[in-house]
Amino acid sequence: LTVSNIRRHLAAAVPPSDQILLLGPPYKVPKDSTLQSSEVLNSLRLGDEEDDPASQQTILSTTESSGARRLFLFSKQSLSEHAPDPPPCQLSPTTLTLPIEPGPSPLQFGGLEGSTSPLHQALEVYERRFMLNLDQGRVLADGADMRLATCRNCVSEQAVMARALRAAVSNLSVHFNGALRLRSEFTAEFQAKTAAHTHLLQKFESLLAHLGTIPLHPALVSVARAAGRVMETLLDTVPVESERAWAGQCQTAHQRLHAMFSELEAGFGQLGTTSSREEEARQDAQAETEIQALWKEVAEAGQKIRDRQSQRLEKLTTDHGEVVKVVRNAISGDSAQASFAILEQKAKSSADLVPSMQVDDEILKQLMDRLAASKTRAMKRMKVRLREVSKAQSAIQRVNSSVGVLKDALKQQNENMVHLEHVAELPRSYRDFLSEIRRRRAYGEAVSSSSSSMMERLATLRSDEVKSRENFLRGSGRHLMPAFVEIFAPTLATPPPLFTPQLPAVVEMDALPDVGPGEIIGGGSSTDAPMRGEGISSASSLTAATQPTQQEDTKMISENQPPEQLIVSADDQTDHELIVGPSGGTTEDAERKTLAYENAVLRQTLERMGHKSPQAYIDEAKDNDPNLSEIENLRKELAMAKAEAEQAKAALAKRPSDDRISHSSFDVGDLALFMPTGRGSGGKRIYLAFHTNCPHRYLSTDNIPGSPDFILGKIIFQEELVAGELGTDANPYNLHVGTRFWVLTVEVFNSH
Fold first, then answer.
1. Residue 584 C-beta-side C-alpha neighbours within 13 Å
2. 711-722 and 740-751: which strand pairing?
3. Which of 458, 469, 448 is nearest to 498 (CA)?
4. Residue 711: beta bridge partners?
5. Strand partners, 672
6. pTM
7. What are phi and psi of 751, to 5 degrees?
8. Contact predicate 126/327, CB 8 Å
């Protein structure tokens, strides 16, 4: 069973090109896959059973809960504007022709002896009269059956039309609701996009003026002059005239878009309102109620008339049989007087049967006429309603097509406005550009410094190896036999090879302008926490902040404390060896530049996330309220930090001489100093261990009351973890994904 096969079978009624098929509920154009489903076929069979007039007690009373489905055929020709009106309904039989002569008699009067006698003639008259009544009764009873069947079919056909109208309205509702959803979604998108476009077009000249107030970095100005160009502000980098011409074109297209949208809204308004659809639904329901009333009248009044006609016919048949019997008995010699009395009594009792049947037949005829008139009105109304549905469907298709055209126009306008958005985003892009240049330069310097540090360390290793080989060869090696050198170890007397890797030069550094180092984002102040998110902290930033003053702090401690109280490694058994971090200026420079590069990456990431740089907050505070200088706040924070350092130093002085603070390694039993570095979730401080080349040691604050400015304690447990996705419990300190970090649990000795 396929759609094409159905169309081919229905071609005799409606040409395939004019056919419209709707299957439901919900009523939609059927597909081959739908028709081949056994569930759909069973539901169609159930629908046929419900529509069978012979099995129907009520009509149009079943709901969709029964699961029945129906397939309706509509003709495009009949839905056209110039389609003719349907012809008036004519129900048959219109008039019943009653016989005026009786049919053949079961008695043979002509063959009887003495049939010409007056007695026989009188008996024949009685029999002929009853036979004529019987023949007329048969015509009226059969007519009642035909009229009742015609009435049933007429009402059933009206019910089919009502269901077909339901299908058409249901299909219209599907498309109408789809158009409403499309309108709602597109209107929201259109208003959002065009509002942004309107704002940008209105502010375009002010944006250009603002670009003229933003000076280029002096390094960029110098580069431009070296290239023979004069550029001093951001406006000088913009092709102003071409951008203004483009803005004019965008403004014209913007106005045209609004005009098209107004036409689209008018088209949606013509689809009808909720009140008009409710009124149409009320009229359809009223028409169905009228059909149900007609069906009830046919089922009750029409059926009663048909039953009475059948009973009367049965009475006429019985009376005729009795008359024939009486006539036969009279002819056979029974008392003529008694026979005539019986016949006369029968004639009187059945005299009103045929007239009564004629009256009821007239009632059925009037019912047929009313049903025919009702069907004529229903067909005319059906034509009008289906025409309205067809026009609404066409209007919905036009509106949907207009939405598609307007979507394409809006998409093109979005692409056109990108050029103007470049102008609006230029200040932020310029800031990001400077940040990108700083980060790239920091990367280049970190790579160069790290490679130099590595080469220096390799040279030191080779020098030590040369001395060790010389000591061996001048010592016990000089007593070896020649076989050891010639056979066992041919390279025993050769110096170590030179390690001379050919690292490619960072050519990009020569092409990047020097726009300065930018501001440094430190990790020690809790006021930076909102910029970094929920307690984001970096051990490298903490180390970078403490690196320049490490030697000074060491010198200060060495001057104020005896040698046995110096900060030494936990695994170092020498009481008087001073730990000053990595040896060699090249290594320190490499670490410093690597930390500067990490700082630049962090600052750029913050700016890309939408946060402002620290300097931007300071500048805004100065611009908004010159009386509240951020510098004074920073000075107060510096004084508080110095006070905290003094407290920590005093606490260290009170510790026994044999307790040393670890900073280059951390094991269970070591003494560690933790300093605050921002705040985490819940506003609680995050503490990082003071260290040298041992980053990412965080303090477990589960048993730490309050928010002390520093914590000195003995490590009793440490857990090594790997940072997971940002913003999850697997990365509480917002480190790079995959970074190893440690959470230390301590026994607190001192905290303030």
1. 15
2. antiparallel
3. 458
4. 674, 751
5. 713
6. 0.55
7. -160, 145
8. yes
